[in-house]
Hints:
alpha/beta; 5-stranded antiparallel β-sheet
Amino acid sequence: MPVESVDVAIVGAGACGSLVAKELAERGFSVVVLETGRRFDPARDLQNAESNAGKIMWSEPRVYTGKHPIVPKAGAGVGGGTLSWLGVMPRFHRADFRTYSTEGVGSDWPIGYDDLRPYYAKVEREFGVAGECGPFAPERYELPMPPHRMNWHAQLLARGARKLGAQPFAPPIAINSAEYDGRPACTYCGWCGSGCAIGAKATASGTYLAKAEQRGATVKSEAFVHRVNYDAVKGRVTGVRYLDAQKREHALNARTVVLTAHALETPRLLLLSCNSTFPDGLANSSGKVGCGFMSHPTWQVFGTFDEPVNAYKGMQMGHLMVQDYYAPDRRNPYSRGYILISYMMTPITYANLSGAIYGTELKQFLDEYSHTAAWWAHAEGLPNDENRITLDPEIKDARGIPVARLTYEWGDNDLRLADAARDKAVEMMKASGARKVRVGLNYGAHAMGSCRMGSDRKTSVVNQFCQSHDIPNLFVCDTGVFVTGSGVNPTLTAMAISSRAAEFIGESARKGELGS
């Protein structure tokens, strides 16, 4: 079995893994990034076609069960979820880190907004973010690129929002409004979710990972990591084992291992890596690996207009956002808050998100595509330890390895909050002048919280720097460390947390404090 040795092995080549790779490679560490999916040349492989989404989204087996089974979108390939993501990158608000203290729900984070402020700004600058911070931002801050101009779709939605007294704005989005860092401005082709052929949309592979490779990092694509190796005598991880595209076994020795395989696959890998010291999963003395999984409860709301809207002419998501209903309000019959985001998807996704309609009604809905506007009503889902990732006892992937099993049930507050978001979107759509409003699919968006951070090793998996409580040279840097999910898109916060963790890893390794 071929064996290599490096300073740092990073599992997952998405937003967080690529960022950590770049940070540590710049500090002089030898870094290898392992990614299950293949590598793409966007200009060749991701030319405008909705079918491209099938290449860059996770399609391996996984079991979704529970009272409310959800299927959060996940990417696959070098670049991870940023290949298919839509780029919206708002900052968390201050209260998002203190939900228990302020409202008695969820849990408080061991870090707060001020801990992440410099890393938010750093990621926004390095990744390239356009837009406005908005009237309800945690503080006034400037983004490196001006906001995108509003297409007609956004103007229609803004009209209704303002009639109801809301303050719509162009939110932070990692799609170039002007040439930036050698990448061109967006041409508004509307195929964001199928991959960006020109590189205007920021992807991990086109930004952080490219710079990491320039500094000597190595990327191994089609490398499925199925085990993190552990030395019980030293109490340290020693590397990983992985299968290549031909299912040949390889070993990679590493002084430090960083898991960035997202909130679905990171806990699966830890559970697969059980041993005599950790019989319930590696780094799982707390029993919390896989627990507390969260998603955002969302509704799709469509409005049909007499005049053409042509919402496909522009970015799919994020020309417009409303945060007026985000701040907690004790007068509400629910805790936490929600946002509304403009989101008009490509035709097949449009049909999939239409809801439970078929026959003549579905045909009419499809025929109205060019006359349709859409809000995405996006709310916060609270953590519940019963929502969890485990290994399925029966289903295995093509390699013969047990797949992740996601068990999920929305809580009462989740449902009330999502319904309030849906109803407000309907009200706004009517205020915009839609002659017909249709409520589409209710679904879970984003994957978070399966390896939560915390100060108490009995109730959390990692500390505030994403370091395992059990194993000092093992780190988790992805949305799995989230304590609560907030009501906004999670990627920027995950990257800011990872940037802070990478700084800690680099400094600790130089001081010899990781003990490897």
